[in-house]
Amino acid sequence: MPVSCSSCGEKRAALKRPKTGHSLCKECFFMAFEEEVHQTIVNASLFKSGESVAIAASGGKDSTVLAHVMKVLNERYNYGLELMLISVDEGITGYRDDSLETVKRNQQQYELPLKIVSYEELYGWTMDAIVKQVGLKNNCTFCGVFRRQALDRGALMLKVDKICTGHNADDVAETVLMNVLRGDIARLRRCTAISTASEGEGVVPRCKPLKYAYEKEIVLYAYFKKLDYFSTECIYSPNAYRGHARTFLKDLESIRPSSIIDIIHSGENLSVREGVKMPVQGTCSRCGYISSQALCKSCVLLEGLNRGLPKLGIGKHHRLHGKILSQQPLTEKEERKLKSVEF
Amino acid sequence: MCQVEEDYQPKLQRPEEHSVSRKCVKCKEELAAVLIRAGDPYCRSCFRDYFTHKFRAMLGKTRLIFPGEKVLLAISGGPSSSAMLSQVQQGLSQSAQKKLRFLPAIVHIDEGGALGLSLVERQRLVSELQVIFRASGFNFYTIPLEQVLDLPSSVVNVAPPSFDQAPDSYKAAVDVDLQGAGRDPQQGGGVPEPRLDESQTRSLQQLLGSAATLTARAELLSTLRQHLLVHTARTRGYSKLLLGESCSRLAVRLLTCVSLGRGAHLAQDTGFSDCRFGDVTLVRPMREFSAKEIAVYNHMFGVPTVIIPTLDTKMPEKASIQRLSQSFVSRLQQDFPSTVSTIYRTSEKLQTAGGGCSAQDGRCLLCVCSVDTAAGKASALQARLISEQLCCQEPAGTVQVGPTPPAGQCCSATDGECGRPAGGAGCCSSHFRAPEKKELQKLLCYSCQLILRDMSSVAHLPQYIVAEAERRKRRSLMKDEISEFLLEEEGSS
């Protein structure tokens, strides 16, 4: 028996919304989805008129949908924004080179300027080379840290005012869960913020307009709008710790669909006791990027890679910062600790 | 790898030594009998000292329980609470210097009615427990959960604490206690339990049955249990309630609370002390003991336990959020042995937003924690409300729900507004009105709203909750009327 759309009541319902369980027709779903993103942008005052905004595009579903929705809303509501695409090439064969083709297609479809930054040109290392040195367990740390800096460098080269990323509600919920499991109280406090703080040189503020959009709804949107995206997982991802948080979240969603928003609500309302030690924001003494230690994480990781000490940067290494800065050689015991790697 | 600032220990990469004939790490003489963490074998007596010392240190360090204070131990019969009981028994019988100085009594809530156990089965379990309680020599109360339907509505309100709990007064109280040694020894007997009424059991089952999901049912059950415990403590003059939750259980509880949207109340749900009720403080002294340590202790020193099934016994993994979190943490613990302690340490660093134990107004009707539904400009709650509005044809508020009050009542207005304050036999006889879901939602915190959402009907809610909801509604209507004349916010009603 055909169900009619619960919003317009006229057309036949084509889908059931994962977020609320209502049955909607295609047009009402598009309207609801876009309207929600618009409300998020307006309520959080993410953009100001006349700003130039870089959309971090990876060719995956989140960034494709983000680019599409940003373009639609920019025209519909006259945000007055100048949009462009940034993409990062990590150098993962079989994954990134394919998705970059998708980004180039997106650029033509949406008629937005595109800039690609690669790890090779910024750091001299591709992810494949890094995995050969580091192994399969800690490589996600390298990729994530390097990508963050790469995005910022690319944004500075383009001279934009803001970056927006395609993080969706599932990503934010997974991050909250992961930080609880790892005991990272500092990140737990910050991870539900919709945009990062905007002070400091060399830092471009970034925001997540899709923060309250479910991943399943993004896929539904892309499917019905026939948007073109690249849908494989990174080949190194099965070993990441985040995978555990992800399976837990998927199971939670099957028990209670509102769990994702509930977790974000929990994360937003957390309050940390006074007197708990928090990192203080400063700058890296080598490259000038923002950092809470003497050396920023990517400098430490790079140093480790270049010296053939892959574990430098994973685990506690504050005491070694001074030594690295002053170019002193490390003692043999320290070298031994940092070198051993299991595959 | 799973921890943020983790130091890699080289010794984990060495081949495992034989753990069979190792010496105890503390006294270095005896043969080790138990391996607690990766590198710590203990002999029997050192383990017992370690366990006892940890328990005493938890109580002594926080200086929460005053000498001579009446304390209620909530014993479910499971391993953690039985170990707690055994520790308290030991602690009270020691030499005067290190003696625990409070006056304990035991309470057990018999939940068999909620689980559908037969009367015979329930009586058997309770009598097994009563044998253990009698052996302890303390006063004990075994109360069936059906009693929760008869509670007064004051149980969900915060009451001011009965005596001064400042830290300086702790030392003074200890000195006084040491001098005046003579205290009446406890009789140690049970209070005769009330007769079980079939209809009450049925009402309780209907209430729990109206919650459609197991998650909501489990939360509702634990809320009712908490209300009953607090009421027992209040009416019999106990100012502290000791709960026997272990570290493993609290780690699972933390993850569950985050998943249920209780992020604002994490500190109260999993912290050492929970003062949301004002006069009765909930204390969790078994917080630092992992389930493994407790199991080993119970086994080695013959602590008697009675296993009573709960709502999610023998349920599949995805039956409820609580059950899923438990299996998730256990599975993760196998691969990453520091998971439970890391999660536990996270809970220590949290606090309740806005100083939880203060204002009376703005408390949730069910869990008595502060209401966290002030939808900020850009928040998850706001996003949710927007989504719901966008999917419905007309705003939900226009639909009229709820019965009109019967003829002969003084409230002629359809929503039952009555300006007169509630007296004992006030003009609005609240038990003729079924509560509306929407009205109740306003009085609840985020996660309790989710429980209510899962309930198919609110007609079976206990009388005290309905009465309290009515009272708060009347009071907020009064406040709206005079809001322009009020000069400052009141702290308590």
TrEMBL record, chain A:
Residues 282-312 form the Cytoplasmic tRNA 2-thiolation protein 1 C-terminal domain. CDD domains: CTU1-like. Residues 53-233 form the tRNA(Ile)-lysidine/2-thiocytidine synthase N-terminal domain. Its EC number is 2.7.7.-. GO terms for molecular function: ATP binding; nucleotidyltransferase activity; tRNA binding. It comes from the Eukaryota. ATP binds at residues 56-58, 62, 88, 166, 171. GO terms for biological process: protein urmylation; tRNA wobble position uridine thiolation. GO terms for cellular component: cytosolic tRNA wobble base thiouridylase complex; mitochondrion. The keyword RNA-binding applies. SUPFAM superfamilies: Adenine nucleotide alpha hydrolases-like (SSF52402). Plays a central role in 2-thiolation of mcm(5)S(2)U at tRNA wobble positions of tRNA(Lys), tRNA(Glu) and tRNA(Gln). Directly binds tRNAs and probably acts by catalyzing adenylation of tRNAs, an intermediate required for 2-thiolation. It is unclear whether it acts as a sulfurtransferase that transfers sulfur from thiocarboxylated URM1 onto the uridine of tRNAs at wobble position. NCBIfam families: TIGR00269 family protein. PANTHER family: ATPASES OF THE PP SUPERFAMILY-RELATED (PTHR11807), CYTOPLASMIC TRNA 2-THIOLATION PROTEIN 1 (PTHR11807:SF12). This is Cytoplasmic tRNA 2-thiolation protein 1.
